[in-house]
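Lecture 7, part 2: worked example. A protein chain together with zinc ion.
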Amino acid sequence: MRRQGYNGDKRNSRQYSWKAVVPMSLVNCKDCGKLQLKESWSREYCADCLQKRTKLSITIRGFLETHPKATILDVHRGTGIPLGKLLDYQREQREQAYT
Ligand SMILES: [Zn+2]
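Predicted complex, written out as structure tokens:
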């Protein structure tokens, strides 16, 4: 009688609940290449890079608020953000606008 539920049942139920949170797929972060779970909120970036990008976008938006007519070069000079990152950001904004 004591054998019942000692081993099997508990372990099984644990495995099932663990399986339930396993995501459908894994992807490499677009920025640093780190393997991460693909979830809607994270898009193609890991949490670290997502945070960096959020900061970047706040900086860019803040600059554009005070300099509405700024070109990408002005933003680069004004914020010190590398041009490559700015172009990435600009491209992504465009992609998001269409999706
Ligand atoms: Zn990353």
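Strands lie at 26-28, 35-37. Residues 8-98 form one domain. Keep this in mind for problem set question 3.
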